[in-house]
Amino acid sequence: MLTRFRLSPLLFCIIAAGIGWGVFLWTYARVEVEPDAFLVVTHRWGRTLPEGELVAPDESYQGIQRRVLPEGRHFLNPVFYTWERHPVIKVPEKFCAVLIRKSGTEIGAERKALNEFLARGALDLEAAEKPGERGIVEQVLGPGKYRLNPYVYDVETIPAVEIESQQVGVKILLWGREPPKDRASSYFVADGERGVQRSFVPSGTHYINPYVTKIVPVDVRAHTVVFEDIAFPSKDGFTIEPRVQVRYKVVPEKAPELFVMLCEDGTLYQKDDTYEDQLKNPILQKLILPLIRGYVRIEGSKHDAREYISNPKDAPAAVGKPVNPRERLQEELMVKVKPECEKLGIVIDYIAVGQPRMNPTLEELANQIREREQARITRSTNQQKVAQFEREQTLKSTEALAQQRKLVIDANTRLERAKIDARRRLQNEDAEQKAKLDSARARLEGARQRAEAILISGKAEAAVLIAENEAAVAGLRTAIAGFGSSDAFAQYHILLRLSPVLSEIFASDTSEFAKLFSGYLQTRPAALPRDKAEVAPRDKAEVAPNAVPQ
Questions:
Q1: DSSP-assigned letters across all residues of 482-506
Q2: What sign results for the dihedral spanned by CA atoms 365, 368, 372, 373?
Q3: What is the CATH architecture assignment of 223-314+340-357?
Q4: How far apart are CA 264 and CA 216, in angstroms?
Q5: Which residues pair with 153 in a beta bridge?
Q6: Residues whose CB is less than 8 angstroms from the CB of residue 224 and which lie 6 or more positions away in sequence, other chains included
Q7: CA 354 to each of CA 129, 226, 362, 421, 495: distance values in angstroms, whole numbers, following the listed order
């Protein structure tokens, strides 16, 4: 059996109140703060602010609260608080932010009498309970994002001080202790005292408060400048206006001292590209140029004008020392000017004295010097040509004699070689003719012997042939004698050769054509037996066909 659940009126009121409070907070008290923003909160209730204060010292006072709320979600009861949205303070690269605190305690009259107007108290970006004094804050903020209460701080964004790689900075403290009157140096002050500091600032990016510190860049790279307004009288009374080139640079450690001595309106002008820049450059006009002008006038007046225009070739010179007066002058300037400038903080790398500018009097003197020099050069050239011609004639005669001796030697060499070749050819011809004679004699003797052998062999062969022919003729005579006559012998041999063929042609002896030869076919010599008749042709065949019966 289920029991019926009932809420008590008190519990129901508590739950309803909780739900209502949650809806109220989410609907009316919820504040969403987007990125790069923050909230400045104002308290509606609390104690009254002290006189002269713009920001509440703590949360118990009514008014603008020092602490700000960052980005995110916050719940503020609109019955007790109001709020304002502000963007964050963005300080870009190469810039810094100077803060001026608008709330806090006033600076005392004693400090104001001493010209101390910097606000004391550490910089607290979270706006702590102890804000410090009103005024300019010594510390600056570098590049970044900051949530600064605009009712607590004013922000001034200024560029950072850039000291380049070939520069140093002179640090001037605008705020600090008053330097004593009996200090050791009239140019510098001790650390923490107001004035120019002795140590220089190295190159780099420096984030400084311009109300507290000032850094002035000083160029320490090497500069090359040409002076064309220097003039001095020569020993013989001519006005010499040389071009003097100087390469100099500032010593970094001496930069603060030079700045104090030469600065005008808080800056040190160091440009020297044009003549107007040189006139404004205090380093040149107050330090380098007076020294060079003084020593040039002293040392340059020791030489005649012609020595500056031309280089004397016949002037005696010590070993290792220059003959040209301009070279001697620039060496003297380096010896005298360089140490004086180093004492003042300027390093002189070199001083070069160039050709002087030609005015009418120097131009006339230069023309005379050039004419005399041209005459000297022409005479020297002619002397050299004469010497050269003499050397060429001597060389040509020597070459001709050498060529003649060479031709004679070549001719004698060819003559001796021809004689040797002739003797060699004569010996070779004699030997060759003797060899040919011996060979001919040997061939003649061999021919004689072969002829005799052929004659003997021919006689023997002839005798054999005669004997053989005589035997054949004797046999033939005997065979013919058996037939009775030579015609019967010839007829017999013809029929003997034709009988085999005719026997095949004539198949019967009774034919008319066969009867013509039947008498011949059956006739056989009676005196000669069959076997001798068969032998006789063999014997005749062995007789030579050209044999003649005798």
A1: HHSSHHHHHHHHHHHHHHHHHHHH-
A2: positive
A3: 2-Layer Sandwich (3.30)
A4: 12
A5: 101
A6: 245, 246, 247
A7: 74, 10, 15, 80, 150
Where are the domains positioned within the chain?
Answer: 14-159, 161-218, 223-314+340-357, 479-541
pLDDT reported for residue 549: 39
The reported pLDDT for the residue numbered 164 is 92
Q: Are the beta carbons of 261 and 187 closer than 8 angstroms?
A: yes
Copy the structure tokens of residue 123: 């910089």
Residues 196, 262: Cα–Cα separation, whole Å: 13
Which residues, including other chains, have CB under 8 Å from residue 365's CB and lie 6 or more apart? 238, 305, 306, 309
Contact 310, 373 (CB under 8 A): yes
The one-letter amino acid at 13: C
What's the pTM value of the predicted model, to 2 decimals? 0.57
Task: State the Cα–Cα distance between residues 199 and 172, nearest whole angstrom.
Answer: 10
pLDDT along the chain (550 residues), means of 10: 60 79 77 91 86 80 88 87 92 93 79 73 61 82 91 91 92 81 74 84 92 91 90 81 90 90 85 90 91 87 75 47 75 91 92 80 72 84 90 90 90 91 90 90 89 89 87 80 78 77 60 59 47 41 39
**Amino acid, single-letter form, for residue 401:** L
Give yes or no for a contact between 217 and 211, defined as CB atoms under 8 angstroms apart. Answer: no
Do 330 and 271 contact (CB within 8 A), yes or no? no
User: Tokens standing for 422?
Assistant: 């002739």
**Could you give the angle at which helices 486-505 and 512-522 cross, rounded to 10 degrees?**
140
Q: What is the dihedral of CA 524, 526, 532, 533, to 10 degrees?
A: -20
Q: Amino acid letter at 334?
A: M
* pLDDT number for residue 530: 44
CA distance 17 to 25: 12
Model pLDDT, residue 221: 93
Give the CA radius of gyration of the chain.
74
Q: How many helices (H) and strands (E) does the chain have?
A: 12, 21
Q: pLDDT digit string (tens) for 194-223?
A: 888 888 999 999 999 998 899 999 999 999
pLDDT of residue 321: 53
Residue with tokens 């964004």: 157
Measured distance CA(338)–CA(342) in Å, rounded? 6
What six digits make up the tokens of 260?
A: 């104090």
Question: Is the distance from CB of 269 to CB of 282 less than 8 angstroms?
Answer: yes
CB neighbours of 30 closer than 8 A, spacing ≥ 6?
Answer: 73, 74, 75
Number of other CB atoms surrounding residue 502 within 10 Å: 14
Q: Answer whether 132's CB lies under 8 Å from 122's CB.
A: yes
| pLDDT, position 51 | 78
| Structure-token match 């590209």, residue found | 273
Separation between Cα atoms, residue 219 and residue 215, nearest integer Å: 13
Amino acid code (one letter) for 85: R
d(CA 64, CA 66): 7
User: 33: closest CA among 59, 64, 69?
Assistant: 69
Work out the number of other CB atoms within 10 angstroms of the CB of residue 387.
Answer: 10
